Structures are given as structure tokens and as C-alpha cells.
Amino acid sequence: MTENHEHKQTFRKPYQHKQSRWWWLQNRFFTLYLIREATAVWVLLYCLLLLSGLVSLSEGEAAWSDWLNSLSHPAAVGFQMIVLTAVVYHAVTWFKLAPKIMVVRIGTWTMPERLMLIGQWLGLLILTAALLGLAIAWGA
Amino acid sequence: MNIAAPSADIMKVTVQRYRPEQDNEPWLQHYQVPFSADTSVLEALQHIKDHLDPSLSFRWSCRMAICGSCGFMINGVPKLGCKAFLRDYSELHIAALDNFPIERDLISDISGFVENLETIKPYIIRDDPQELDTSQPINQAFIQTPAELSLYQQFSQCINCGLCYAACPQFGRNPDFLGPAALALASRYNRDSRDQGQEQRALFLNAEEGVWSCTFVGYCSEVCPKQVDPAAAINQGKAASTTDYMLNLLSLSKSGEKE
């Protein structure tokens, strides 16, 4: 067979679109996803705040009470409200995803998603109440 | 609903064009398309090609959400052209699927996706290849109960339309990611009671380009026209991958030996 370069000519030139760095603003679903992922940043900042509390505790009673007082500064309260919102949003969205990740099958029965959701919220409520009760009992 | 007579209403349809022999990047062309209550987006494109502009290129075949050929970005959302209707829009913007190279106009080059499908060995694997020797008459029945079928049936409904790849920002970032449909199909065969290929597929599923490139955006399951739910398949695969990893640590798994 002879090579015929004329027949090999091609106009193929696939256009590769580059993902925009603003892809997460493209639709609501992506934006809500990125907010969920970004809640980790707020949790990290809150962990640093708690860590600074631990450091001030090691520095003596004056430093500790200074740190405690600084928490009730309006800016600090605002920050804690943001962190709380972020954590709740994270919990809501992850609790919704959990039944997709973990399918509970007993024999031929599959646990319905709703039951798993309720179970997670009940668990969270009971643990929160127990922790709060413990903290109040400790303080009294 | 007022069922309009044919050609009663006209909709402005914007179509992304790309002609590799002339264009360096995609551009937009506007058409006025008559429609009635039952006009699908695919039919609108066919109207354009038949009556307004024969140079427009797009893929289609079955017209009923079985073949998976007519996936487009319709007003920014990955959808099948045959399953979206003009009556639900006030204006249409049709583009080629996101995250794939554009071959021409609305035609995407999905060969990368097809290669990913091949990678995960989407067929029944038996430890004893003699059992599947196609040169021999079938001498053994692979019986399966309805309960065993129900474990994977949902993940076997994929029509390879690629909408989930267009919906996946991780695939957009990294085309080496095996992606939603391929991983869901791997899950489908891993769950099949007749299959014995889990260890062979584990190599690909456990890799960086396997389940771990997924961050559970979940949009793939949202846009899937067949309710396959690839996000669920992949994220359940992460649990399996973790188990496999732990077994490897304890040298109990066979899949690690081949690495």
C-alpha cells in the first residue's frame, strides 16, 4: 500500500475548554457544595481559638480569665455565631449524605434513608444534651 | 395547558458553534425556532439543521433517553436533548457538554471517558477463565436471585451519556480521574454475585484517580437521567477501598500482591 499524505489531512482540532477558577459560582449546587467544604476553615479557626485558651490556661489564672473575658467581646461573639452556623450547616449537609455512603442492609431489608437521618439527629441531640448536662453539673 | 398549534410560538435559541477548520474558539449563533408543547430540545436542533442551517453538527440517535448520544449543556445544566422540552424554558442556550474537548459544534470528544470505562474492566471476571471461554458451549448456569440482582441493578442502568462527567468539577480539574460513570460501573460489577474480579478492579479504584479523587460534590447524581446515583456508588466504594487498605496493611488482601 502506498502512503498518500493528501488523504491523511485532517481538520481535527478539539477545543479544550479550561475550567474557570469561578466554576463554583456557575450554579447553586456547586456554591452550596463549596460552602459545605469551606465550613472546615471556620472549624480550624475555632480550634486555634480553643488552643489559645489552653495556652493562656498554662500561663496562670490572670491570663485564663483575660481569655475568658475576651470571648464575650462582640467581635468574638460574632465569630462564634459564624462558627456555630458553619458547623450546623456542615452537620445538616453531611447527615443528608450519610445514607448514600452507608447502606444498612439486614437480610433483605434496607434501612430507609429517613430512618438514618432521624437516627443521626437523635444521636446528636442526646450527645449534646448529655454534654450540656455534664457542663452544668460541673459548674454547679 | 394550552396546546399550541405547530409553529404558533417562536423561541430564541442560542447555539454554541465551533468549526475546527475555521474557528480558534467556540462562538454563539442565534436562531428563531418554532415550537409546540411537545417540542424537545433535540427536535429544535433538528429543525435548525433541516430548515435554517445545515452546517450545525450534533449527535443523536434514539430520541427516547436510551442511547445517551444527545447530551448537551442546556442553559448551563447537563441534560439529554431528547428529555428536555422547550415548553419549560423562556429562552434556550445550548452548548457542548462541559469538561470534554469540543470536536465540532455540539459534539464532544468522549474518547477519554470511554477509555476510563475500559480501564475498570466492565465485564464479568471469573477466577477460572475456562468458565467464560466463548469458543466453548456454555456448560454452566450462573444463577442469580432477585435479591442478588437488586444489589447492583440501579448501577447497571447507565447509558454512557456523559452528563455526570459534565457535572463533575473534579473531572474538569483532572481528566485522569476515572469519573462518576466508570466508577459506578465498576461498583456494578463488584456487586454482581457472578463476578470474581473485585481484586483486579481494586488497583484502579484505590488509586488517586479512582474513588479518592471524588469529593462528593454530588451533582453527578443530580443530573443523571437514569437515576444511577454514581455519587452513592463512588462513596460506598471509598468504604470498600478503606477496608481493602486495612486488609493490605495486615497482608490479608490478595489485591496488594499484584502491585
UniProtKB/TrEMBL annotation, chain A:
Q: Which domain of life is it from?
A: Bacteria
Q: Which UniProt keywords apply?
A: Cell membrane, Membrane, Transmembrane, Transmembrane helix
Give the organism the record lists. Answer: Candidatus Litorirhabdus singularis
Q: Any idea what this protein is called?
A: Fumarate reductase subunit C
**Membrane-crossing residue ranges in chain numbering:** 30-55, 75-95, 115-138
TrEMBL record, chain B:
- InterPro entries attached to this UniProt entry: 2Fe-2S_ferredoxin-like_sf, 2Fe-2S_ferredoxin-type, 2Fe2S_fd_BS, 4Fe4S_Fe-S-bd, 4Fe4S_Fe_S_CS, Beta-grasp_dom_sf, Helical_ferredxn, SDH/FRD_Iron-Sulfur
Specify the 2Fe-2S ferredoxin-type domain's residue ranges. 11-100
Gene3D superfamilies this protein is in? 3.10.20.30, Alpha-helical ferredoxin
Q: In which pathway does it act?
A: Carbohydrate metabolism; tricarboxylic acid cycle; fumarate from succinate (bacterial route): step 1/1
**Catalytically driven reaction(s):** a menaquinone + succinate = a menaquinol + fumarate
- One Pfam family hit: Fer2_3
Supply the alphabetized keyword list: 2Fe-2S, 3Fe-4S, 4Fe-4S, Iron, Iron-sulfur, Metal-binding, Oxidoreductase, Tricarboxylic acid cycle
Keyword 4Fe-4S attributed: yes
User: What is this protein's record name?
Assistant: Fumarate reductase iron-sulfur subunit
